[in-house]
Amino acid sequence: MIRASIGIGANLGDAVQTVQTAIQRVGALPETRLIAASSLYTSAPIDSSGDDYVNAVIQIDTGLPAEQLLTALQAIEQQHGRERPYRNAPRTLDLDVLLYGDQQIASVTLQVPHPRMHERAFVLLPLTEIAPETLIPGIGAALPLLPSVSDQRIRRM
């Protein structure tokens, strides 16, 4: 089993309900067990438009290979009507593999650690809430990065 961190966000429809349902669905994936779920947060869109996002981070233990986990997450997004009309478009649901153990993955479809996770309050705050000791491969400890994102608007719900 690999410990993975998954970022969850939504800003279309009933975003709170969508995020809560997504947490349950990810935890119910084959060979997967939900370990921890952060509080829900609201955050302003970054490099995007639309309503504020509802965000959370969960940790799972999974036996799914990274690419298979990504495929399963994208299927959950599709069940929630996810469309990708353009980069950073508002979304019904966004599920990102943030961390997959201590692995660094650079494939055509998946980059782990998520390339901008260390620059995003909506990732770092919920991640360090549930796992303050998190190390981001190639970057370092997550907790000391919080001051660098303190100018981003985020609020615990």
The CATH topology corresponds to Alpha-Beta Plaits
- Overall CATH architecture: 2-Layer Sandwich
What's the mean pLDDT score? 93
Structural classification: alpha+beta
Q: Please report the total strand number as a whole number.
A: 10
Query: How much helix is in the residues?
Result: 10-25%
Largest beta-sheet characterization: 6 strands, antiparallel
For the CA atoms, what is the radius of gyration?
14 Å
CATH superfamily: 7,8-Dihydro-6-hydroxymethylpterin-pyrophosphokinase HPPK
Order of helices and strands: EHEEEHEEEHEEE
**Strand residues, percent:** 25-35%
Could you name the CATH class? Alpha Beta
Morphology: globular
- Residue stretches low in confidence (pLDDT < 50, at least 5 long) are none
Number of helices in the DSSP assignment: 3
Count structural domains: 1
User: Distance N terminus to C terminus?
Assistant: 31 Å
Q: In words, what does this structure look like?
A:
It is a single chain. The chain has 157 residues and is of the alpha+beta class. It has a single domain (2-156), classed as Alpha-Beta Plaits. Helix content is 24%, strand content 29%. The chain is built from three helices and ten strands; from the N terminus they run βαβββαβββαβββ. The protein has helices spanning 15-27, 66-79, 121-130, and strands at 2-10, 32-37, 41-43, 53-62, 94-100, 105-106, 111-112, 135-136, 140-141, 154-156. The strands form three sheets. Strands 1, 2, 3, 4, 5 and 10 form a six-stranded antiparallel sheet that branches. It has a two-stranded antiparallel ribbon with strand order 6-7. Strand 6 and strand 7 (111-112) form a beta hairpin. The chain is globular and about 35 Å long.
